Amino acid sequence: MHCALYTAGTCRSCQWLDTPYSQQLADKQRDLHSLLEGLPVGEWREPVTGPESAFRNKAKMVVSGSVERPLLGMVHRDGTPVDLCECPLYPASFPAVFSVLKTFIARAGLTPYNVARKRGELKFLLLTESQKGGGMMLRFVLRSEAKLAQLRAALPWLQQQLPQLTVISANIQPVHMAILEGDTEIPLTDVQRLEEEFNHVPLFIRPQSFFQTNPQVAERLYATARDWVHERGNIASMWDLFCGVGGFGLHCATPDMQLTGIEISAEAIACARESARRLGLKNVEFQALDSTGFATGKGDVPDLVLVNPPRRGIGKTLCDYLSQMAPDTILYSSCNAQTMAKDLALLPGYAIARVQIFDMFPHTAHYEVMALLTREI
Predict the structure, then answer these.
(1) Which residues of this protein are catalytic (predicted)?
(2) What global pTM score does this model have?
(3) 271 is in an annotated binding site
(4) Is 243 annotated as a binding residue?
(5) What is the longest distance spanned by two Cα atoms in the chain?
(6) Whether 248 contacts 219, CB under 8 Å
C-alpha cells in the first residue's frame, strides 16, 4: 500500500508499512507462537486476511485549524496538525464526505477545539459506513451544548448534500483530556441505528456501541466462530460474554440453543436484542451487565462460553471461575494476544485445540486472535 502521508513522514500510524505484507503476517504468527510458548496448541491455522487498504469502516478525526479552514485528522504531541482526509485506509467514499464536512463546519460556525488554549467547541468527527447500502453514521463530539442550536439549524443543508448520513448525533465531551467521547449523546436524526449485515446476520450500530472497524475480516471471524461452535456438536446452551452488539452469539445460535449475551453497554445490548428479533430467535437473552459479575454470580454451567474481552483480557477472577464451573468448551477471541496468553495460562484444565490470527490491522503490530479451548477430562 502506498501512502503519501507516510512517505512524507507526516503520519507514521502504520508503523509496518515498509514491511512486505507477507512478512507482516509471518511476524505476527511468530509473535503469537512466542506468547503461547509452553502452552501446547493442537492446531495452528493460517492467518485470515482482507484488503491491505481501504478496509476501515470508521474514521476518528481530530478537528483542528480554524472555523474557516478546518483540518480533519490528528494532532502531533507538539501541536502540529495533520490532515488525514486522503488516508488510504479509508474507503473511496470518505474523502468526498470529508470535503463536504469541512464546508459544513464553516457554515455552522463550529469552532475547532484548540487543545493548548482550551478554547473552541468541535473536538472530533466520528464517521462510520455500513457495508449494507452504504449508509453512514456521523457523530459530532463537542465540548458543550453551546453550539448545538447552530448545528441543528445548519443540519438540513448537510443532509441535502449527503443523504447517505442516515444517523447523526452530537456527543458532549467537556473534559480537557485525550478522551474520545463523553457520556451524553444527543440524537439529531430520528434514526439512531446504522444497519449492517455479516453472513446474512443483521447487525446494528448505535452511536455509543463498539463495532469492528475491519468488516471484511470481522465477517470471517464471526463465520469461523460459528463453524467452530457447530463442529462441537449439540451445544444446548452458550454464554457470549463481553458480547458487544451480539455478533458472535447471533452467528453461533441455533433455534434450539439457549443463548445468553452479556455486555456492560446498554447501547450495544439494544442492538443485539433487535438483531435477535430480526432473526426470530426465541431462546435468546441479552442483558446489560458486567460480564465477570454475571458469570461469577450464576450457578448453572453452559455447554460453551465465548469471551471477547477488551484489551485488558478477562482477568484472574473470571479465569478462576471458569476453571471451577468447567464448561466443556471455551472460545476466546482477543484483540490483545498478550493478555490472552496470560489468561490461558490461568486455565490449566483446558487444552488449546486450535488458534488462528485474524489480521484486522494491517501495517501495524496489532492483530485479532481466536483460540478454541476444550476441557481436559
Answers:
(1) 335
(2) 0.95
(3) no
(4) no
(5) 68
(6) no
